[in-house]
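Could you help me review a protein record that somebody else here produced? My question to you is simply how this chain folds and whether the tokens agree. Thanks in advance; the entry in question is below:
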Amino acid sequence: MKRFRMGVIGDPIAHTLSPVIHTKMAEHLGICCDYTAHHVQDGELEEFVRMATTEGFAGFNVTLPHKKAIMNYLDDCDSYAARCGAVNTVKISGGRCKGYNTDGDGLYASLKQNGIQMDKSDILLIGAGGAALSICQKAVDVGARVSVLCRTPEKASAFAEREGVTVHKISPEMQRQCAKSAGIIINATPLGMEGISDNFDDFSFLDETEAAVYDIVYKPSETTLLRESRKRGLRAFNGLGMLINQAIYAFSIFTGQEFDFGEMAGYLETVIGKVVYGK
């Protein structure tokens, strides 16, 4: 039986759930898989890509802070990753590395599994990092209108170039204004994450909206944003579903396996939820 060798790189990387997620997928499908985490710092990307290419990797995932820099060391990128300007999945075949981005598809699938359609919706997207870029691009691709709020709009020029996207400096007033017309509010920042001291300063932007709220943070299971949203009767979801779905897409790219993505997502939500939350 063929054994797939895969991995994930980042800095830091000790917290990653990718090895357990991919291993559980392989076990569920009866596939042999070795998936390992690699602490790769700035300046070590080229060396890692060379090693992975020569030592038989089927591919590897990429997390912070390398999602943009990794593109300099690839032979090719699919069109979606190129439009995002960020890569989180690298497929190795015939000695060549091709980049993909599954973050946007992962969020889209998670929203759909929770009965929320991103297509042609009005979205308030908070944050302008690598994950936000992918989410924004997916939203544009399905005809959504996106208001991006971030601390330094001048650094978000890649967002402003997209049709249907406006970029604003984040403030309580702007949050309230954008939330009023939004059908979906997405937090794509680390605010509220376990181990991060920063949090939202003001939750009043939730007072006059009926939007569904999605926080890509998955630990803790209920961030302050989600708790405040539920207090107001809003539908609110954490990022575990996005994490799982983006991994499912990546696993399919690495292995070429066909399987029921929805069934796999349901299985992993239960299994990985026990690993993350102990229940």
Remarks:
- The first helix runs from residue 18 to 29.
- The first strand starts at residue 3 and ends at 10.
- DSSP finds ten helices and twelve strands in the chain.
- The mean pLDDT is 95.
